[in-house]
């Protein structure tokens, strides 16, 4: 099977968790504490993956300085884009409560939320495509981490969208489109960097890692803490440990 097609398949699989989570969040009246708990676990999984799968690999192949600069650059780019979208009504796009703006409260917030969801998902999916360039197959830890973090993202956000009065067509249209974009981003990660030097690939992974960590701090952790409070730390640690163990079990 062509590498780009494998990248698209794995990216789509990880992205499908967004749509699955959106269905659960829209139709099931889950308590906020459960949504927040799953969010905390997903955050821990992603932190583990970006630590060992992204930054460790980036430093090993591209050097500490390039990795550190890429890491900070990724965070700056994400934070800047997130700031602009937050001003347009996407600040609470992953919140499951009544925090999300409705279109009546903030005209244009629907588009901002959709763009914000795309912003959150692209770096994760890009990494899946890049991970295939090693020739050793896809990183199952990366795929599992993205899938397990996408599920609560879709779940929490869709619940908040429903509370804000957004239609089913909007909710499932957004998350269906983002799931599709996840597959396309993974393909881009493979195609654009195929044949690139190890240093460039390493820098790209570091940039993605910085963007992902900034996304966690800006969007996922606030929802996790608000709903689970004293249990947030423990659940995040368990998510981190699950991803770490999975990495150690990889051949």
Describe the fold and architecture.
By secondary structure, the chain is mainly alpha-helical. It contains eight helices and no strands. It has helices at 3-27, 32-62, 64-90, 109-131, 140-163, 168-193, 198-228, 232-249. α3 runs antiparallel to α4, α5 (140-163) runs antiparallel to α6 (168-193) and α5 (140-163) runs antiparallel to α8 (232-249). The mean pLDDT is 82.
How many angstroms separate the termini?
Answer: 21 Å
Radius of gyration: 17 Å
Number of strands: 0
Q: pLDDT under 50 segments (min length 5)?
A: none
How does the helix and strand content classify structurally? mainly alpha
Provide key terms for this protein:
mainly alpha; 251 residues; single chain
Question: What would you say about this model in short?
Answer:
This protein has helices at 3-27, 32-62, 64-90, 109-131, 140-163, 168-193, 198-228, 232-249. By secondary structure, the protein is mostly helical.
